[in-house]
Amino acid sequence: MADLFSPFTLRGVTFANRVAVSPMSQYRAREGHANDWHMVHLGRFALGGAGLVYAEATAVTRDGRRTHGDLGLWDDAQIGALRPITAFLSAEGAVPGIQLSHAGRKASERRPWDGETPVDAEDEALRGEAPWTACAPSPLPYAEGWPTPTELSEGEIRDIIAAFGAAAGRAREAGFKIIEVYAAHGFLIHQFLSPLSNHRTDAWGGSAENRQRFAVEVARAIRAQWPEDLPLAFRLSATDWIDGGLEVADTVAAARALKAAGVDMIDCSSGGIGGKDRPRRMTITEGFQAPFAATLREEAEMATMAVGFLWDPKTCNTLIAEGRADMIALARELLDDPNWPLHAAAALGADENHGRWPIEAGWWLMKRDRLLQKLGLRG
Q1: DSSP 3-state helix, strand, coil percentages of the chain (rounded to 5)?
Q2: What sign does the dihedral 157-160-162-168 (CA atoms) show?
Q3: How far is CA 74 from CA 142, 165, 269, in A?
């Protein structure tokens, strides 16, 4: 029976365990380029025992950034700074992954600590960061007070699809072993999928199949550039939590279409299409999104990742053991404790005497434990 610390294989990639580090935007890049911050931020999770470490949402075009601080892979010059990071993650036993994204109508946004509102002239004066024009499937603002995005033309849609493919090729050159496409939380692909944000009447809107078309074409473009033996995942918002928006049945259908296009796993999140306020239908409790992973795993017959308000090792282990998900993704819990996987392994009886720790740390911790036991200290 599988558990949280059993290996898991997708295509030609085997993860040492089922713990994934969810993509967490750091907003520290400059013109899309990674730096020492990203090395240290991501590297500590590999040292902490995670089986999969995702780099943050990484823009496939310059205008597809959410903020001025987003990572990017729209230029070959951005590859080099990522190579040492993927090499370190791999050397420490973690699979390096990257999340490719386009923000669509959520582009040109301030960093969260600067307000998480649209960039304007004040940002240009204070930080030298000018606003730019966002695009979307339909000219509908993200939320009240946000600018109206331009509606994408057929040619522009094709250009963005091609940009996802080109970014996948750069991710391969940078040393990543799994790609996750950000198709949730109100980003561009989610904007195409949801009837709340896609009011088009051409081949890219209207019916569910037409609204899925952009996501499917992105998957195909990536697969054309991504090696056959490397897995491809999509993060989807399983429901919009808003009447008239996406429901779980819609996402099951989208997952099936993506599977046919070469997608191997769905990272099951929710919400994000209608502004920052939590929809009334959304009730947040521990593991509240885990049922989506179970439903998609069964009904779309593909691997799933559970994410969102998961922190208890026993709960996470049960999701795997009962076949309700194939991997577990954590984010803020890992910011608080980058060694969560190692501590979870000990709590679940999957580690003894710090044997899973890097030997440079585990040796010292074993020595400390022996001394504390000998002295009768700390219980």
Answers
A1: 40, 15, 45
A2: negative
A3: 24, 10, 26
**Token digits for 80?**
């080099």
End-to-end Cα spacing for the chain: 34
Residue identified by tokens 């030609």 is: 12
Strands 135-136 and 52-59 turn out to be unpaired
Enter the pTM of the model.
0.96
Question: How many other CB atoms are found less than 10 A from the CB of residue 210?
Answer: 16
Three-state DSSP state, 343: helix
Length of the chain: 379
Q: Per-residue pLDDT tens for 176-222?
A: 999 999 999 999 999 999 999 999 999 999 999 999 999 999 999 99
Cα(21)–Cα(101) distance, rounded to whole angstroms? 17
The per-residue pLDDT for range 132-181, each reduced to its tens digit, is 999 999 999 999 999 999 999 999 999 999 999 999 999 999 999 999 99
For the chain, domains (ranges, CATH) are: 8-348 (3.20.20.70)
